[in-house]
Specification:
Largest sheet: 8 strands, parallel, barrel
Structural class: alpha/beta
Radius of gyration: 17 Å
Helix content: 25-40%
Oligomer: single chain
Number of strands: 15
Order of helices and strands: EEEHEHEHEHEHEEEHEEEHEEH
Shape: globular
Number of helices: 8
Length: about 270
């Protein structure tokens, strides 16, 4: 398996479990920066490799009236500041080829949202930036279908990539996670991350917004690490009920340290 390096962090191939965490979307500069510092401090205390995540734009909200974010230019400035002040690598979503090069100036990892994982031009543009590309498996894809996604990124000579399991559509307003998918995607030779919080989302179940089962996120996280995941993606917030996006599937910040300690123990046993 290939090792993906982000700053001082090495992911996959027997390296320590990595934590990707942060709020779903940037909720203003002051709060997001403060929260990023707290997350980075927590990660240092727990001695877990940490990557901060937040989106400058949530382009696939259920309702036209839902909060989307601060936009690419302002978001890029805030994310660059977070990277500088916390020392942690930073990840954000990109939605079009045009966004990829500009976003790459501010962050270390470009994430391809699940709904866009087959968009060839977007994948290639992200790869051409030279940044690590983190691709979420679409809810509509089988794990083995991600081989074709990998080939698109590799077509431009890029091999700094990771794949993400985040559940599969199961009827209306529901997702299920087949842990065999982690092993299947690892056959590509690249690290696999478990998105434990989006995997418990109930898409559109809130009428004009998605709902979720946040209490099940730790369950999936533990199972995924036991199944061989190289890292865990966890959206978190001080008060999920007041989060501007995806609150129903977030892990409350005060509960995150205990979860991380547990995941590290499982990884140590199973790796």
């Amino acid at each position: 398996m290939k090792t993906v390096t982000v700053g001082k962090i090495k992911i996959g191939n027997g390296h320590p479990l990595v934590l990707i965490a942060g709020p779903c979307v940037i909720e203003g500069e002051k709060w997001t920066l403060s929260f990023a510092v707290r997350l980075a401090d927590m990660a240092r205390t727990l001695k877990v490799p940490f990557i901060f995540k937040a989106s400058y734009d949530k382009a696939n909200r259920s309702s036209i009236h839902s909060y989307r974010g601060v936009g690419l230019r302002e978001g890029g400035r805030i994310l660059a500041r977070i990277r500088a002040e916390t020392g942690a690598p930073v990840l954000t979503d990109v939605h079009s080829p045009e966004e990829a090069s500009e976003a790459a100036e501010s962050v270390d990892i470009l994430q391809i949202p699940a709904f866009l994982c087959r968009q060839t031009d977007l994948l290639v543009a992200a790869a051409k930036t030279g940044r690590v590309v983190n691709v979420k498996k679409g809810q509509f894809l089988a794990p083995h279908d991600m081989v074709q996604v990998v080939k698109k990124i590799e077509s431009v000579g890029h091999t700094r990539l990771m794949l993400v399991e985040r559940g599969t559509t199961f009827g209306y307003n529901n997702l299920v996670t087949d842990m065999r998918g982690i092993a299947v995607m690892k056959q590509t030779g690249y690290p696999v991350i478990m998105d434990a919080t989006h995997a418990v989302q109930l898409p559109g179940a809130g009428g004009d917004k998605s709902s979720g089962q946040a209490e099940m996120a730790p369950v999936l996280a533990r199972a995924a690490v036991a199944a061989g995941a190289d890292g865990v993606f966890v959206e978190t917030h001080e008060n999920p009920a007041k989060a501007l996006s995806d609150g129903p599937n977030m892990v409350r910040f005060r509960e995150l340290p205990a979860l991380v300690r547990c995941l590290k123990k499982i990884h140590a046993i199973c790796s």
